[in-house]
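Lab notes, practical 5.
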Amino acid sequence: MYYRKFHLTKNIQILLAFICIILNQSNLAQSEEVQGDKIFKFQNKLLTNGIDFSANYVGEYFSNLSGGLQNNGTYLDNIIFSFEFDMNKLAGIEGMSIYLSGIGINGGIPLENTGALQGISNIAAVNQFKLFEGWIEQNLFDDNIAILLGLYNLNSEFDVRESSGIFLNPSFGIGFDFAQSGQNGPSIFPYTSLALRLKVGLSETFELIAAMFDGVPGSLANEKGLHLDLKKDEGALLSTELIFSPGQKEFGKDYSKFSIGGWYYTSDFEKTSDGTIQNGNYGVYVSAEQFVYSEKSLPEQGLAIFGRFGIANSNFNPSNYSFLGGLNYTGLIPGRDEDVLGFAFTSIHLTDEFRASENLESNYETILELTYSFQALNWLRFQPDLQCVFNPVIASSQSDYAFTAGMRVEIAL
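Output from the prediction step:
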């Protein structure tokens, strides 16, 4: 579609370099002077002085085994570096923090093989190296109010579920009804935009978040690099979410989270049916997750379930509603306390206008995902993954299904 080909040897070299560095230096993580949970000694020393540095390498290979557009394999990876600065420790400014993250994206796009409109991998994007987030946050009134300004990933706080985060399909991160919106998507991976975000703790169980974003993150003319063009005709994206967390805040026994959110673009959009320009691109979603069973000996192990439903204005978007649900079990195998087994589905309903414009017969595209996260070491994780796509939209003229298998490797420093 839009992506250049990828050279496998470059990414294998990066992966091997990460492993060698960790194996050679991981014994330096602890010392009598510096204690912490980081891999390297220098990371813990930085953390003591108010700087939290982390790096992640995520690589994966997906092979479309049957159906879809073509039976072919794709390798892709991301490298992410981040710094968080505690300005209280660094400069004596209480309640202030600064965050910077950079990302390198390489590889192919699995949906080019499967033809799934929702995608297959949540790390697939245009190949580039760029600044991803860069913001400053100030907490006020005993941390009951927090104001953030800068380049900000909407999906870091909006439309987030702890229990669905294990899955690799992007629809389990932010719902498709929200992700499809805008001229260049909302402010999510891989394009973030300038934002002003307000978070208010209404009570011990209720929290409200609201934000205003530049309506077009990145650039419509250039897919690569950082672009901060504020234009009046591009408008703004307004988003808000009310979160209810009646139980334990940490994922595990008694954990639950329920939320309702909405979004609206102030700019005009082209109607799918006749091409006229109108205002009113909006959507609403509800989300819920619950830790329903915990093991007696280890409360963080057990079964969690989740679900989500969202709608979007059918005049401007390919899908007017989507829904998803699933479950995961942490520590199912004795002795594998941090492993996670997950099964979930996501389904989108296509608007009549979009189906007519694309000559599509099916109303829905549905994806089933089965995955298992294997925590090999505290810094190394393997995750085999199976996805079955029913009625892949992009491949509709060739196949009514696609079956793909993948493996993800993650190194976290």
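Observations recorded by the TA: Helices lie at 8-25, 41-48, 87-91, 111-114, 176-179, 352-358. The chain has one domain: 8-412.
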